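BACKBONE GEOMETRY TOKENS:
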Amino acid sequence: MSARTALASEMFVGAIGEETPLEPARSLDPAPKHPLADYKNWNRGPAFVQLQWSRPGDDTWWLLDHVQPAQLEPYGVFVIWRNGNVRKISSVIYVGRGSLRDEFARCRRDPLFRGEALHVTWAAVSDPRMIDSIAVYLYQHLQPIWGDVPPMVPPLACNLPLTA
């Protein structure tokens, strides 16, 4: 190697025997200030969803037969249960999800939901992508007697109806 090549390599790499301190690479651009700046959490949704469960009053719940389609939000989740008494224990019958008007109409046609005074509550879910995950959480925690097998999606924690 010629003296000129050796001199050029020392200028760019550093002199022989000198230690160059390691520094992290820095961007020359200013840091972004928009929501996408947190790229590590770009695909994470909320850890907990606060639902507004529907009730006709402070101490009462809706009866399934008394709910009118006009009362229902377009999409959400709902829970149907039977209140207990001295002879029977309370039990969650069904956890539903999707188009609330369509699902309530389907439940009213089903013989399973006739006969006894069944209670119901529902909550609107503004982001349809979260409905299945919320329904899985409700299904796991309320353990309904009857219903569809929840889809294979991770559960999304929410407040239960009794905490509303």
User: Anything to note?
Assistant: DSSP finds three helices and six strands in the chain. The radius of gyration is 29 Å.
